[in-house]
Amino acid sequence: MSQRHPVNGAGLGLRRALLGPLQRFEGPYPVDFWEVAPENWINVGGRLGRKLREFTEQHPFVCHGLSLSLGGPSPLDETFLHKVRNFLQTHNIRCYSEHLSYCTDEGHLYDLMPIPFTEEAVDYVAERIQRTQDIIGQRIAIENVSYYAAPGQEMDEIEFINAVLQKADCDLLLDVNNIYVNSVNHRYDALEFLSGLPGERVAYCHIAGHYNEAEDLIVDTHGSAVIDGVWQILDKAYQLFGPMPTLVERDFNFPPVEELFEEVQRVRDYQSGHDYPEQATAHAGAR
To answer: Which of 52, 127, 190, 271 has the fewest Cβ atoms within 10 angstroms?
Structure first.
């Protein structure tokens, strides 16, 4: 494993609906690492708990959280974070990530809401990220999210993300699909946005499918295959930052696992055409 990233290669999200098909698959899984949402597995025992333990004992894992609500008005759920810490340690999880958004306001909203792009929000979110890192005892990665409105906006999305990363001193989960979705919905240049991100902070990447509601409205669904436009942005990301570990997300409408493995292999094919820039390698060795 390289010094720069917690995992290597091409990964796939492990969903409960995939456990049966994976069990029936013959031969080793052509997947370099897996990802789970801790909320879906904390306190799960019995057959499912044992199955997860079998996976985490045999394969590298990362965690992508769903409910921490880093930008929410409710107090940070520190009881939950202590459970996350135990989960990460029990299963030897290599990285914990969360969304740069919020999903609570005196209760769960069951959606990822946009944080206002303001200096006040930068300070607020960065403090909560730092507290999260203190409790779980490791750096976390925050994901650039898809959003459909920008209430109270005082700065650009790219400025907001970079300011949070720097002030919190955390890592980035680079979601390439979300860049594509937002570039269409908010009419900006996806490659220009990508080039403005700090590649040296990327822990790993996400790619996924989405739904075209209209010509100028895309909904981030994770329910379909990755399209060519997203692959092109991923290829550019590798050109800029090197062949970062990348995970295929699929949350529903699951095809046969062989089709998912084909997307994982396509990630590897793109990765194989790139090397890490010398300056990025030097930076990684200094961290």
So the answer is: 127
pLDDT tens-digit map of 156-180 = 999 999 999 999 999 999 999 999 9
The larger pLDDT score, comparing residue 281 to residue 270, is at 270
pTM of the model: 0.91
Mean model confidence pLDDT for the chain = 89
Residue that has been written with the tokens 């005196």 in this structure: 106
Tokens of 259: 């089709």
Angle between helices 46-58 and 16-24 (to 10 degrees): 70
- Between CA 26 and CA 31 the distance in angstroms is 14
Which bin fits 219, alpha (ψ -120 to 50), beta or left (φ > 0)?
A: beta
User: In sequence order, what DSSP letters do the residues of 19-51 get, joined into one string?
Assistant: HHHHHH--S--S-SEEEE-GGGTTT--HHHHHH
Residue 107: which region, alpha, beta or left (left: phi > 0; alpha: psi -120 to 50)?
left
Question: Contact, 65 vs 98, CB < 8 A?
Answer: yes
Neighbour count for residue 213 (Cβ, 10 Å): 11
Four-residue CA torsion sign, 124, 137, 285, 176: negative
Report domain 10-286's class. alpha beta
Burial of residue 20 (CB within 10 Å: 0-12, 13-18, 19+) is exposed
Distances (CA, A) of 164 to 63, 157, 225: 21, 11, 31
